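Hey,
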Amino acid sequence: MRLSKKTLTIAVCAACVAAPAAATQTDKISDGVVKIGVMTDMSGIASDMAGPGSVLAAKMAVEDFGGKVLGMPIEIVSGDHQIKPDIASAMARRWLDQEKVDVIADIAGSLTAIAVVKIVKDKNRIALVSGGGNSRLTNEDCTDRSANWSYDTYAMANGTGRTLTQQGGDSWFFIAVDNVFGRSMQQDAEAAIQAAGGKVLGVVRHPFPSSDFSSYLLQAQASGAKVIGLAQSSSEAGINIKQAAEFGITPKQKMAPMLLMITETHAVGLKTLQGAVFTESFYWDRNDETRAWSRRFFEVKKRMPTMIQAGVYSQVLHYLKAVKAAGTDEAGAVMAKMRAIPVNDFFAKNGKLREDGLMLHDMYLMQVKSPEESRYPWDYYKLLKVIPGEQAFQPLSKSRCPLVKKQ
């Protein structure tokens, strides 16, 4: 059968229209896959609080989302940056340039997170920080392609410092790790303490990482301060508290860890840590939702999740929701949806991603239980106070982020 010229022209034009339409559908997801890189510390000082548990949390989020987005597969890759900025930077460049990773999650460690978010911004991808809590990430080092999810030094220091000062602990001495995280934590805490009417009698700094704090504790003891603030990693805080008990410094002087993970509480034990007051963004035993997810996590890891690991789940799940809502994995469109859609999961209710990159959510003032108060395994904390996000985190009026438009 011979086709007329008119019929042939219509057929050819129809094919011309159909082909681009099909291509546009598949091009909504770059490279036909959404690739999520979990960059963390797999075997070092932060491996218990982040590490393999963060990778597991990301995989759980992908599983709960359904394994695909916009009909395309979701892939998780992971890497160990050893909390070294040079390794983290090289890994980020390789992931973004060669392996076509769309979003980097967790990024444990403040210096590593600060280094990575700059690279991600230059490559027009997305960085979701859960394990690097320096307040600089939403101030001087903020970008429109990054988010700080679980905690920051301002919220941790503000919750603990202000509360203990108001309760009578109005004189402080700080033991702080000598890096950008420790300095930010100590400075944020000092501002909160002074605002509450307290004073800081002195500060001593130690290299990272450290395992013997004897000389620093003796200086803190000699200061006569009512409270010894610990602006350092959770594992270092745990060592400090153990040594303070051995030296008889406690309970005469109160130890105040600015950062304390449940994994460290488990390792040190309630007998030593009982009574310690600190600020958290997640506790596994807070309600039915947190318990249900945490028990799934426990089945695999045989330990309860930290706030960093729970935050990784939340940030990955919210990212995937935003990709679906945007209809693409293009970074700018996805970030716009991440800001537009409230964060609603077991980690945060009505959480909001602000223009400075901070995910605004409630924080919790906790106290470590005594061994007698603990009723079952991992029953370690009691909730003293819910701190609304607007009170816990730095207000936008004080922001140093250039993306924030001041009123």
